Structure formats: C-alpha cells, structure tokens
Amino acid sequence: MKAQDFLQSEWDYCLVLDACRYDVFCDVYDEYLDGTVEKRRSVGSSTPEWASRTFTGQHDIAYFSGNPFINDLGIPLNELKWGASCDYEWTANEHLADVVDVWKHGWEDDLGTVPPESLEASLRERRDLAERNERTVLHYMQPHAPYLSRGAGQKLKQIQKGIRRQEDSQEAAADGGGPIAALGQTVRPRIESALEGSELAQKAGLWLELDPVDLVQNGTRETAFELHEENLRIALEAIADLIPKLDGRVVVTADHGEAFGEEGVWEHHIETHIPALVDVPWLVVE
C-alpha cells in the first residue's frame, strides 16, 4: 500500500476528514463526489502523531483547523492539557505559514463540536490567506465524534475543559504552580497510558457519545458504525457544496481512521498502527 505522501502529492486544496475510516468512505463517497478513491497509509493513528510527522519543515500552507491539536496557540503538543498525553514537541505555527483556529470561533455549543459549515465560513472570511499561500488545508472534525445527529456531544467538551485548565495553569506558572500541580503533571500521563491500554476504558469513552437504547438493541460496534457513516455523510454534503467554489486541484483524505473493536481497539490512540487506524482514503476530485 502506498504511503499517504501528504505533502509530496499534488494538490491546491486538501480537505482532511478527521478519524475517517477508509472502508466507510469507499461505501458512500461517490454519492457526493466524483473521482477514484485510493487507499493510502497514514503516518499516524491520531491527529498529534499525524501532524507532527507530516509537517516537519516550513510549509507555505494556510491551515483552517477544526481540530484543537492543530492550533495557532504556540504551545507544543506535549504541553497541551487536553486529549491524550504525548511526547511530541511540535507546534503548528512553527511549521505552517498561517493557522486559523476554526475550532475556537466556529464552535457550536448545541452540537458540542465544530460543524462543517464553520470551515467554509472561515475560508470565506479569510480568503486572503488562501490566496497568499501556495496551498490550503481545511481540517474538518467529522466524522470524528461527537455525532451531529445526537447533539450535545461529550467528547470535545473534555477538550474545552482542557483548554480552560491550560489557561489556569499558565496563570499559576508565575508562582511555580505548587507541589500538587507538579505531582499532577507526573502522574496524569501514566494514568492515561494505563487507561488507553484497557479495552473497557476505550469502549466507555465511546459510550458517552451513543444512545443507551441503541447500544442495548444493536451493540456498540453496529451503533458506532452507523453514526460514523452519518457524520461522514454530513461532512461530504458540505464538501460537495464547497468544491465548485475552489480553484485548482482538490484532494479529500483523512489524518487517521477509527477503530470499532478491531484487535481490541476502540476509537483512535497514539501509535496504534492497526489497519483501521492508518488506512485512509485519498480521493483526487474530478
């Protein structure tokens, strides 16, 4: 299988679908887009891993980001206080010419996420960035949970809490944060690492986004698959509406996939290189 070759491939606009499974994409994309899809291998099984391994140099790219891990805050990934802990000393604005934090101004509380329409609105408002850069990326949060049809998703609300903790810790840094804060920074990564190794803990995180009635009737895997496809369809509908407004070669791909029980893995985790997580679609739009 060919490597994703994100930067080495030819495109003017790349539309990144977060946590998009290759097989689900293949099943539905041609209802919305023209082109032939190819399976490629991502360099990471999570957004932080993918971003830090993809953007290693200086790139003339305008990056409209619905994902808070790729941001204009100037804080290295290993110092962010939301999501899974990682050791990547990488910041987006050191490698990308312009980063637009759509995840911040395009957030909708009722949905608990950044809807696809926020990406197009942001691009429309900052079209100058696309014009002055060689290439442009729009990073959609879908089909990543939370699932838009359910509303009030919990998954990204945890990230919002982490952002607030980040702001609080920066204020406390002036006085060293105290011994409790220092202890927390030592223990937290170990606890998260242990939890990520537990299949039950992974499923519990997914259960937050699912309807209990559906879980009982259909089981976790089938319920999650259906909602993943539904989220993808919502994103593809928005993308299909956007593409005619773009000039140049357009590619649709994903940063990584999503697991629903394959090899005991649920959702997606750093450096978990199973096919469900690293097989991604690569569609050159005709």
Quaternary structure classification:
single chain
Q: Please tell me what the overall shape is.
A: globular
Would you tell me the structural class of the helices and strands?
A: alpha/beta
Span between N and C termini?
Answer: 23 Å
Main sheet? 8 strands, mixed
Q: How big a fraction of the residues is strand? A: 15-25%
Task: Give a written overview of the molecule.
- By secondary structure, the protein is of the alpha/beta class.
- The chain has one domain (2-284): Alkaline Phosphatase, subunit A (3-Layer(aba) Sandwich), CATH 3.40.720.
- It has helices at residues 22-28, 47-54, 102-105, 116-125, 127-132, 155-172, 178-196, 199-207, 212-218, 220-242, 275-278, and strands at 2-3, 13-18, 37-41, 59-65, 96-101, 135-143, 250-254, 259-260, 266-267, 279-284.
- Strands 1-3-10-7-2-6-4-5 form an eight-stranded mixed sheet. It has a two-stranded antiparallel sheet with strand order 8-9.
- The relative contact order is 0.23.
Write the layout of secondary structure elements.
Blueprint (H helix, E strand, L loop, with lengths): L1 E2 L9 E6 L3 H7 L8 E5 L5 H8 L4 E7 L30 E6 H4 L10 H10 L1 H6 L2 E9 L11 H18 L5 H19 L2 H9 L4 H7 L1 H23 L7 E5 L4 E2 L5 E2 L7 H4 E6 L2
Parallel strand pairs: 1-3, 2-6, 2-7, 4-5, 4-6
Antiparallel strand pairs: 3-10, 7-10, 8-9
In short:
The chain is an alpha/beta fold.
Could you list some keywords that capture this structure?
single chain; 286 residues; alpha/beta; Alkaline Phosphatase, subunit A; eight-stranded mixed sheet; two-stranded antiparallel sheet; 11 helices; 40% helix; globular; Alkaline_phosphatase_core_sf; PglZ domain-containing protein
